[in-house]
Amino acid sequence: MTRQFFVGGNFKMNPTSREAKKALIKVLNEATLDPNTEVVIAPPSLYLIPVLEQVRKEVKVAAQNCYFKPNGAFTGELSPAQLKDAGVPYVVLGHSERRSLFHEDSALVAQKTRAAIDTGLSVILCVGETLQERESGKTQAVVEEQLKAFIDISKPEDWSKIVIAYEPVWAIGTGKVATPAQAQETHALTRAFLATAVSKEVAESVRIIYGGSVTASNSKELSNQPDIDGFLVGGASLKPEFVDIINAKKA
Ligand code: 13P
Fold this sequence. Notes:
globular, binds 1,3-dihydroxyacetonephosphate
């Protein structure tokens, strides 16, 4: 089973001007990108429509979050239906910043994932442990709990619309990247968990990407691990080196 390499750029709450956003898109539009890699960028919601209009067609666009209701009195939220209507194919859900700063628990993330898939979106579903959880040997239990909330309400056909992003919280924005061996271990254990909790077919086919201080210089070795199917990149997705990360598998 070959899983298509996937590189996502999570811009988070960046950049802070339309000019800077245009400059980021220009770099991507002018670069030579590995045609075998699926590339998805997640700009702030304000920029979703202009980015869809400006970015080359090979690069897909994701929202960084959405709610689970289709419409209504939910001030400040975006719905899966609105994203679908705008032509946005992907949404990032369960990012650790949403979980920790905005108090989203796994049940809510699962509900949002259900709604997004039911609306026809694909989901980049983020999981990962804190440093304290890793140091107390709970990494796998945490990742499995985060996934199980969705597994419990999933259907077999959902999994072709899901990319799992393993993002250890201690590696996000810290410059402390997981070693290739640490990331590979969690990815392999997560795949083994999916084989028993969902199915062997899903475990084999679902892409599990790594996020947390990925740079051009560490991406190559990470990409060589058998269970690392790509990256979700934060800080480095705002720099020209994002192109090298996209091309890591080919390089
Ligand atoms: P950094 O690449 O900045 O560590 O962020 C990773 C991340 O959170 C991507 O979603």
